[in-house]
């Protein structure tokens, strides 16, 4: 009878050991799966960041930072009203919107390169990139 009890005890211990091994194995698989998910997220994030860098090239001279500071710097750039007779002496097309300048249009001159644009068009451009849309010179002559 004692032998039967010992065999039954061994079977119970073996069953408990098997359950413990299955639990350990499942835990290890979950940990490895979690690590794999984290690595996948990191890879996708880095890949997405590199795509963003390819889509928006930096030509240097970009003014990073607060949009209010950029708007303040924009106000320092010269503005003028396009007048009659100016068609002969300068470029008559805005390189941002590709529309011709009309008499009375509000225009902005970039002093570093002397290119002119509609003020609205170039202001929106310069809020994203502080470089001239035509020649990539820093807009205000400073970087």
From TrEMBL:
Keywords: Membrane, Metal-binding, Transmembrane, Transmembrane helix, Zinc, Zinc-finger. Residues 94-136 form the RING-type domain. The chain crosses the membrane at residues 20-41. Pfam families: zf-RING_2 (PF13639). The keyword Nucleotide-binding does not apply. PROSITE patterns: ZF_RING_2. One of its GO terms (molecular function) is zinc ion binding. The keyword Zinc applies. PANTHER family: ALCOHOL-SENSITIVE RING FINGER PROTEIN 1, RING-H2 FINGER PROTEIN ATL61-RELATED-RELATED. This is RING-H2 finger protein ATL74-like. It comes from Canna indica (Indian-shot).
């Amino acid at each position: 009878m004692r032998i039967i009890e010992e065999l039954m005890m061994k079977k119970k211990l073996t069953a408990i050991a098997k359950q413990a091994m299955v639990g350990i194995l499942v835990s290890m698989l979950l940990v490895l799966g979690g690590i794999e998910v984290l690595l996948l997220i990191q890879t996708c994030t880095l890949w997405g960041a590199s795509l963003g860098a390819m889509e928006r090239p930096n030509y240097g001279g970009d003014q990073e930072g607060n949009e209010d500071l950029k708007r303040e710097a924009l106000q320092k750039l010269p503005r003028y009203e396009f007048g009659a007779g100016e068609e002969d002496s300068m470029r008559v097309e805005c390189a941002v919107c590709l529309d011709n300048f009309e008499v009375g249009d509000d225009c902005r001159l970039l002093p570093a390169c002397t290119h002119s644009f509609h003020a609205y068009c170039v202001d929106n451009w310069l809020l994203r990139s502080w470089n001239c849309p035509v020649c990539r010179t820093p807009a205000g002559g400073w970087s």
